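re: that chain from earlier
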Amino acid sequence: MPADPRRATTFLLGALFWSLGLFALLRTPWVETRLVLPLTQMQKQAADYYAGSPSVPVAVTLECSGTDVLALCLGAILACPVSWRARLAGTAGAVAFVLGLNTVRIATVGHAAVSPALFRALHLQVWPAILVLATAGYVFAWMRKALGPTGRTEEGDTEDRALSPLVRRFAPRAAVLLVAFALCGPWIERSQALLEVGAWTARAAAFILTAAGMAAAATGNVLATSRGAFIVTPECLATPLVPLYVAGVLTARLAWPWRALALTAAPPVFAALAVARLLLLALPSALAASPLFLVHGFHQLVLAVIGVALLAMWREPPAPRMWARAAGRAGAALGAAAILAIVAGPALTSAVLGAARAVTSLAPHTLTELGGPGDAQGALALLPAYQAGLLLALGMTAFAGWRRLLSAFGVLLASQVLFLVVLGELTDHAGLVAHALLLRAWAVGVPVVLTLVMLRAGQPAAGTLARLRPAADGPR
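^ sequence. v structure.
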């Protein structure tokens, strides 16, 4: 906060005014009926969608909406002496942060209802403290960024300095859009429009496979091939890649006509990806023992390819044939990752499960098997090999150095064992089974975070981010 006592007093009075005003507004019957109640129901539906319905019925009322904490948070943000553009950005992030965290609260408290003592502790003590402290942390972090020194990266800056503003701009946009996408999960599952698009996708894939001389037929939104039948559900079409794509378009340094064109291109691009995804069903058994695992994880694989390609372009210094060299580097890294996942993946998975069995004396409910009815999509079964391959590809592309890369692999293996411990304990004590989207987010997120740590610890590269540099926010 500013050192001037008068400005500090103005801020405190403004925060009090905004918080009381928002609190009173959210408590009016009209707003409660038309905004707060639907918002609460959306969070409850999202909690049940991702964590499953609790075995004991739990009433989620307006007091569970999280809007009281949100009013305090928004009051501090709206009173902060920065530009309105910065305040609105902070407000969007705060809404996504509080609603996302409160959805997790509803899910955990609901599943804890089987134990009245645990339910009361979580409902009355633990989660209120977590909400307040986490929201205060968000406000202070946002204010530190909003009130801190600003400046744009110039052409002569190093890559290490150029990447930081790119990540700082992309991450909040992606987080807000991903939370919005997650809250829309129950609606996506019931969308009739997406069901019709799924039927079109199945017909398009059947047409391509038939034209290639393969047996395929589409009935409604079901595609049948010689390897079996596959139902194209709305979740198959509405992928988390969509909010990530939009966040990337909003982050990149593009003029608004080009940005609008990129956003307009999203539907045909993702329609083509949906059709290409179904073509994997025709892969012979020699290439894919379970094509359904590949079909379900298709967008996860696409995200890995895109991430490695972007990193290769960033690390490549500006020179003739820059794009060819970047493509070659990305191709070599992805090839090495594929070899590692295919050849060493089973051994790596066995090693992780062996370590998990070794810690069962300390955490007896640790998962010691990756397959099961709760993982029909194979998200958990493929996680160890996928994470190892992605980390290798990112590390090779980033020139992180073998010593740092080996250290990162050690941390990765430890995180995989710890993940199995947490999943097993949550399943046993709270009845929570991680949704496939959460498993895939963890599979991608850990290697990406480890790569960012390696890059920060290493020497800056000599390339440029000119084409990927974030758009300017304008003067404050």
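The two ends are 16 Å apart (CA to CA).
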